[in-house]
Specification:
InterPro entries: P-loop_NTPase, PRK/URK, Uridine_kinase-like. This protein is an alpha/beta fold. The protein has helices spanning 14-22, 47-50, 63-74, 115-119, 131-145, 150-169, 187-201, and strands at residues 2-7, 30-34, 79-85, 90-98, 103-107, 123-128, 178-181. The chain has a single domain (2-197), classed as Rossmann fold. The strands form two sheets. The protein has a five-stranded parallel sheet, with helices on one face. A two-stranded antiparallel ribbon has the order 3-4. Bound molecules: adenosine-5'-diphosphate (ADP) and ligand LLZGTKA7.
Length: 202
């Protein structure tokens, strides 16, 4: 089994890069796990209380469960991945049953910041895009897909996203084996990572 961790600031293009990597790989060989699925269950808080949570701090993630799940997959066991709703800002009642496959890709802003999680990765990748690029992408995406308005995205960016990026995410770049520049779509880097994965599959 090959476990790949892909980190990078919000809007850098992690999800897009992962989609591009896996789209030409056999579906039955690769599992993608998003750190977002492991946001703490906040069902006990009101929607207003949840909207004040700092979702960019490592404490907002249930790393213990994510690490336990990766160890279970490595041991050949099936896991139940929580489903997170960005619109509700909490976990939903359902889970997704996931079986072990040859390649596991774990993506999320903080996946290289946690030392225990880092130890599980065979390859560590950091996707870089400049902060202005990332903010523009985040504004467009959160308004279109995550049910946020302009003021909410900017307020969250200034109070949580940017300070947590500087404290936890950007410093985790030093642990990366590969840094993918992604101010523009980077097909060369995507092809290189896919080639590494294909070598593992044969
Ligand atoms: N290289 C790129 N150039 C322009 N837009 C991009 C690029 N990569 C991703 N995007 C767009 O930016 C937004 C955020 O990308 P996404 O992959 O969700 O980032 P992340 O998962 O790192 O938060 C999406 O709307 C996506 O289509
Ligand atoms: O309920 C939530 C939970 C998280 N966020 C924001 O999401 C990003 C991380 O996701 P990316 O796909 O990597 O952008 C993080 O910056 C959180 O602030 C949210 O808005 N609502």
């Amino acid at each position: 089994m090959l476990i790949i961790g892909i980190a990078g600031g919000t809007g850098c293009g992690k999800t897009t890069v992962v989609k591009q990597i896996v789209e030409e790989l056999p579906k039955d060989e690769v599992v993608v796990i998003s750190q977002d699925s492991y946001y703490n269950d906040l069902a006990h808080l009101t929607k207003e209380e949840r909207s004040k949570v700092n979702f960019d701090h490592p404490n907002s993630i249930d790393f213990e469960l994510l690490i336990a799940h990766l160890n279970k997959l490595r041991a050949g066991n099936t896991i139940e991945i929580p489903v997170y709703s960005f619109v509700e800002e909490t976990r939903l009642a359902k889970t997704i049953t996931t079986i072990p496959k040859k390649v596991i890709i774990v993506e999320g802003i903080l996946v290289l910041s946690n030392p225990e999680l880092r130890k599980l990765f065979d390859i560590k990748i950091y996707v870089h895009a400049d902060s202005d690029e990332r903010l523009i992408r985040r504004l467009q995406r959160d308004i279109k897909e995550r049910g946020h308005d302009f003021d909410k995205v900017l307020h969250r960016y200034q109070t949580a996203v940017k300070p947590m990026h500087n404290e936890f995410i950007e410093p985790s770049k030093e642990f990366a084996d590969i840094i993918i520049p992604n101010n523009h779509y980077n097909t060369v880097a995507v092809d290189m990572v896919r080639t590494i994965i294909i070598e593992k599959l044969v």
